[in-house]
Amino acid sequence: MPKIIGGSLTAHREQVRAKVFDALRAQLYERGFDAVTLAGVASAAGVGRTAIYNHFPDRESLLIAFVEAESARYVERLEEAVAAAGDPVSQLAAFVRMQLRTLAEYHLPPGGTLASALAPSAYQRIAAHADPIGERLRVIIADGIRAGQLPEEDPDTLAGMISSAIGGRQVVDVPADRLDAVIDTAVRFVLRGAGVKTAPNRQGI
Questions:
Q1: What is the pLDDT of residue 68?
Q2: Residues of the chain with pLDDT under 70
Q3: What residues have CB less than 8 Å from 106, skipping those under 6 apart?
Q4: Within this chain, do residues 46 and 78 fall inside the same structural domain, yes or no?
Q5: d(CA 205, CA 193)
Q6: Torsional class of 165: left (φ above 0), alpha (ψ -120 to 50), beta (otherwise)
Q7: Which positions ≥6 away from 46 have C-beta within 8 Å?
Q8: Are residues 74 and 151 in the same domain?
C-alpha cells in the first residue's frame, strides 16, 4: 500500500496533486504539451505511475485539472488586485498589468496547439476557464463607461479587443530587465486604445 503523506487521505491527495501540477507546469514550459506523458510527469514529481493513474486516467484529464486549479487561483488573485485598484481606469490598468505579468511567468501551449492536440470536449473545458476573466474585464469597462471615464462603446467588443491586444506572448517575450518597461508601455497603449477620458486615481498607471 502506498505511503500516505500529509496525515490523512485528503491531505495526501492534495499534496500528490500539488507535486504533479508542479512537474506538469515545468514540462509544459520546457517541452510543450505534445511531449508530456503521464509517466514522465509522475517520474518528475516523484510519484508512482500507479498513483498518478489513480488521480488522472490520461494526460487530457491531467491538463484539464491543472488548468482548473491554476485558473481558480489566478481569478482569486485578479479579483484582489482589481478590488484594491480603486476607480475603473485604475482597475483596467491593474487587470492588464496582472494579465501580462502572469503571461510572462507562466506558459501554456498556444490555443491553436491545444485545439489540435486535445479532443474538442477537452479543449472546450479548458477554454471555458477564460470566461470569468473576460467577464471581469467586461464589468470593469462597463463601470468605466458609467463613471464617464471611458467612451460609450460596446463592452463586449472592447473587452475582446483588449484581450486580443494583450494575449500574445510576444508582448512579454523580452529579457527580464525590460519586462517592467514593456508592461508599462502596454498598459498605456490599452488605456489610450480604450479611450480613457479621466483617471482620478493614476497610481500604478
A1: 81
A2: 1-9, 106-120, 122-130, 198-205
A3: 25, 29, 70
A4: no
A5: 14
A6: alpha
A7: 19
A8: yes
What's residue 31's pLDDT? 78
Which domain, by its residues, includes 51?
1-57
Q: Which CATH number goes with the domain that contains 1?
A: 1.10.10.60
* Domain CATH number, residue 111: 1.10.357.10
C-alpha cell at 177: 530587465
> Count of domains in the chain?
2
Q: For residue 112, what is its C-alpha cell?
A: 491553436
Note the pLDDT tens digit of each residue in 96-117. 999 999 888 765 544 445 555 6
Sign of CA dihedral 169, 174, 175, 177: negative
Domain final residue pick, 38, 57, 76: 57
Q: How far is CA 84 from CA 97, 143, 171, 192, in A?
A: 13, 15, 25, 22
| Nearest-angstrom CA–CA distance, 127 and 123 | 6
Residue 70, helix vs strand vs coil? helix
Here the cell at position 155 is: 463592452
* pLDDT score recorded for residue 146: 95
